[in-house]
Specification:
The protein is mainly β and 152 residues long. It has one domain. The chain has no helices and twelve strands. The strands form three sheets. An eight-stranded mixed β-sheet has the order 1-2-3-4-5-8-9-10, with no helix packed on it. Strands 6-7 form a two-stranded antiparallel sheet. The protein is globular and about 45 Å long.
């Protein structure tokens, strides 16, 4: 959710999970039917382990076990370097028929003096009938023109 340059994703909601499928093909599973696995069954991944619960129309997401390193993993993008103990709490909600807001709080006492709060907004892209896997180094086919996603 933290990528400021490729926020193209689809959302699928089931009773067991909310799934975010990104344009690069990577899924983010937010399990809503169980807690985090026992510590011995966890290991760091790029997106961490996320569980959530619905509070009215807001999905509250708790993420742990994200790999240590830059918050935004984009070359040449200035980003804080987080520890393996960083803890993320997100509050995802629709703020209009065409917009989702993600208020993310990052706690990482090893790297941050106080919790860092980031608010991201994502706009609905209308008339996009598919996600095309991209490799930003050679196959970047998504472009936003006048607020609409285009495929070239």
């Amino acid at each position: 959710m933290e990528s400021p340059v490729d926020g193209v994703f689809q959302v699928f909601v089931t009773p067991e999970e909310t799934l975010l499928l990104f344009a690069d093909g990577q899924p983010r599973h937010i399990y809503t039917d169980r807690p985090h696995p026992a510590p011995e069954n966890l290991w760091p991944t790029d997106l961490g382990d996320s569980v959530g619960q619905w509070e009215g129309d807001t999905l509250v997401v708790d993420t742990i076990e994200r790999k240590a390193g830059p918050f935004v993993r984009i070359p040449h993008f200035l980003s804080p370097d987080l520890s393996a103990d960083a803890h993320f709490t997100e509050r995802l909600r629709m703020v209009s028929a065409d917009a989702i807001e993600d208020q993310m709080t990052i706690d990482d006492p090893a790297r941050l003096e106080h919790p860092w709060v980031v608010t991201l907004r994502f706009r609905r892209v209308k008339n996009l009938d598919r996600l095309i896997p991209t490799d930003c180094t050679e196959n970047d086919r998504f472009r936003v023109v006048k607020g609409k996603e285009t495929i070239r």
